[in-house]
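User: Hi! I have a protein structure encoded as tokens and I'd like to know what sequence might fold into it. I'm fairly new to this, so please keep things simple.
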């Protein structure tokens, strides 16, 4: 039996994947994988996710060049979540930040504050937002 057969994918066939920078421990992002995207990640050594909104696979960095090179994939104790340690090239966030978790809640929930600098202008990487 393959390790992948032991994972607990949800009713949509997906499993959450938390992506962490291997060198610092910083959480960079969370995305969804299905069995095929996890298999492709293992094959390529780069993260491949399933886009729920677009209903298609995407390789992190395929458009921006900001690839994630996989160093380790761990499975939680219940088998229903993944922790993927990567070497991140460039920004992990589509808004141009190193991490998707670049904002912190301030003033008792009254505002968000950016807590890190933007690395790239997202319009220069992804084009104009509509």
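Assistant: Happy to help. Inverse folding works backwards from shape to sequence: for each of the 130 positions I chose a residue that suits the local structure. Here it is:
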């Amino acid at each position: 039996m393959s390790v992948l057969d032991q994972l607990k994918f949800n009713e949509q066939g997906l499993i959450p994947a938390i992506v962490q920078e291997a060198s610092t421990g910083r959480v960079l992002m969370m995305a969804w994988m299905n069995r095929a995207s996890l298999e492709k990640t293992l094959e390529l050594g780069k993260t491949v996710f399933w886009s729920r909104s677009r209903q298609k696979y995407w390789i992190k960095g395929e458009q921006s060049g900001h690839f994630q090179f996989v160093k380790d994939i761990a499975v939680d104790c219940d088998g229903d979540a993944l922790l993927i340690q990567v070497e991140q090239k460039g920004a992990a966030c589509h808004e141009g930040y190193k991490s998707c978790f670049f904002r912190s809640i301030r003033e008792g929930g009254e505002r968000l504050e950016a807590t890190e600098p933007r690395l790239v202008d997202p319009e220069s990487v992804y084009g104009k937002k509509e």
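A useful reference point when you look it over: Helices lie at 3-6, 35-44, 122-126. Feel free to ask if any position seems puzzling.
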